Amino acid sequence: MDEGVRGSFEVDGRRLSYLDFGGPGPVLITLHGHFSEGADFAPLAERLGSSWRVIALDQRGHGESDRATDYERGGYVDDVTALLDHLGLADVALLGHSLGGANAYQFAARHPDRVTALVVEDVGAVCDIDLTFTKKLPAHAATRAGLVEALGAAAPYLERTFRERPDGWGFSFDTADTLRSQQALSADHWHDWLSVRCPTLLIRGTHSDELSSAHARDMAAKRSIRLVELPAGHVVHHDQPDAFAESVQQFLASEGGAQA
Fold first, then answer.
1. Could you give the 3-state DSSP secondary structure of residue 83?
2. Which of 195, 193, 216, 196 is nearest to 204 (CA)?
3. Confidence (pTM)
4. H or E segment at 27?
5. What's the start-to-end Cα distance of the chain, in Å?
6. d(Cα 99, Cα 184) in Å, to the nearest integer?
7. What is d(CA 205, CA 101) in angstroms, rounded to the nearest whole number?
8. Is domain 5-255 given the CATH code 3.40.50.1820 in the classification?
9. What are the residue ranges spanned by the domains of the chain?
10. Which of 17, 28, 46, 255 has the highest count of CB atoms within 10 angstroms of its CB?
11. In whole angstroms, what is the distance from residue 169 CA to residue 75 CA?
12. Rounded to whole angstroms, what are the CA distances from 232 to 157, 225, 252?
């Protein structure tokens, strides 16, 4: 699997990192969720192949990007602007999961001339995040196997973020940063959602504990957009990679300007 070419740029003295999976097609920017990083979208990039050039940002405080002094909504949105400016891109298709999904639709709402198509994965127009999982995360473990054991069923979702440190194994994000980011995300974002004007696809996992079916249907109905529900949990692209990629590919082919 192509893991992409690592690139970086600076914003206000902070380094932001991204993976460019290449290809001759138009650009799709992907934004990951909490507990994740850009590399999580490598399978999607492989599936989209030459139709799209996928560029996956490690958002502030995640992956190979530097930690930030704040994790408020405006900072995340400004980072996307900085990425597009760094790459010299006037407009792109944009895809985001969870935290990244909210960042994506807020960017699209505030910069309508820069987003040609939008895919939002399993996040609502109203976010009320349960902080219990984050607060229970182990700070580190002596071995990788120990970290996997401590995480239990959640381990496969976080394994791309595993990092070996001098004191053992931990994550590419800081738990305290994640808590601050989740608290800043928990709010009513209906105004931004309803302000988006580009073609939009909303994808929900039928077993999601973050986005209810009723809320997803309300989001879709109020903007007359397509909703796809797949048999998955909150991380649809992990639980159903083929069906997720197919849904994205079909939508982008019809709305984003590339061929399937």
1. helix
2. 216
3. 0.96
4. strand 27-31
5. 20
6. 10
7. 14
8. yes
9. 5-255
10. 28
11. 29
12. 13, 21, 21
Asked if 107 and 77 touch (Cβ cutoff 8 Å), the reply is: yes
Question: How many whole angstroms separate alpha carbon 204 and alpha carbon 69?
Answer: 32
Q: Tokens for 190, please give them.
A: 């209906």
CA distances from 127 to 110, 130, 198, 231 (A): 19, 10, 22, 22
Cα dihedral across residues 41, 106, 234, 172: positive or negative: positive
Query: pLDDT tens for residues 155-165?
Result: 999 999 999 99
Token pair belonging to 77: 């949105």
CA 35 – CA 21 distance, rounded (Å): 21
Going by C-alpha positions, the residue among 194, 28, 49, 43 that lies closest to residue 95 is 28
Residue that has been written with the tokens 């994740």 in this structure: 36
